[in-house]
Amino acid sequence: MSRYTIAELEKLTGIRAGTIRIWERRYRIIKPHRTDTNRRWYDDDDLVRIINISILYRHGFKISKIAAMTGEEIASQVALLSSDTSDTGTQLDSLVVAMTSLNEKAINDILMRSIISIGFEGTFERVVFPFLRRVGVMWQTGSVDVGAEHFMSNIFRKRLIVATDSLQPAINSNSKRVLLFLPEGEWHELGLLFYAFIARKAGHEILYLGQSTPYNALTDVIERWHPHLLITGSLTRLPLERPESFLAMLSNRFSKTKILVSGAMTEIAAKKKFANIYPVTSVYELKQHL
After folding, report:
1. What is the pLDDT of residues 41-79, one digit of tens each?
2. For residue 50, what are the domain limits?
3. All residues at 6 or more sequence positions from 138 whose CB lies less than 8 Å from its CB, including other chains
4. One domain, residues 187 and 218
5. What does the DSSP 8-state code read for residue 39?
6. pTM greater than 0.70
7. Across the strands, what pairs with 207?
8. Local structure of 228: helix, strand or coil
9. Of 1, 43, 111, 236, which one has the fewest beta carbons inside 10 Å?
């Protein structure tokens, strides 16, 4: 069972901690657990209840009316609202709820409704990645368990791989060769997989090396495949002792190749201004380089 502080509950639900306290005192909609030092903490059931209440509240339900509803009535109303795929906020909340119960069917249903409504690319930009940013801090601090992180990440990973494989191979004479890799020690690949999908969708040939690619293996592949474009990145600076030295090494070794970097490397790339390295912070910027 996961345990959340009220500050973590605020980040996961979008409801301010002060508002949660008022709801607790005035409407008794939730009863927090207490530590030996009388500090509030909440479990998965509390998180789900607050998220469901926040969905109804955001859709115009008065908190006094919500407080009078049973758990079944709240869940029923939320289910109706969740069918509105134009409301990405509700989709995000629904993903958090499904994550806490490890409900793969519910997650896939949410993703499918969103894909039908706003497309695969839009779903990852407007639903999946905002969800990952919302819960990312919780995973890093351990308040959301590692099992849930792997569970969610692998669902998204499978979706990206299947979607990319379903695209037609590059046949355009103007297509570029795009090589994608993560530096040694970096294992978070969802962003890179999404960029591989975008490049393939744009009609380019991709070669995906993926997670934790040794530098020697990278140079060997580049010398044999001769890509027009390299794409790399890292979620944080932790995998690289000196990120600026890594970028300088890439820039010097592959001086005739355009290199795009994302994640924690973008700030360094923008500041150092390497001749052939460009920071990419969005799909729009990526498409400008393809």
Report:
1. 888 888 888 888 888 888 888 888 998 888 888 888 887
2. 1-82
3. 4, 8, 11, 12, 144
4. yes
5. -
6. yes
7. 179
8. coil
9. 1
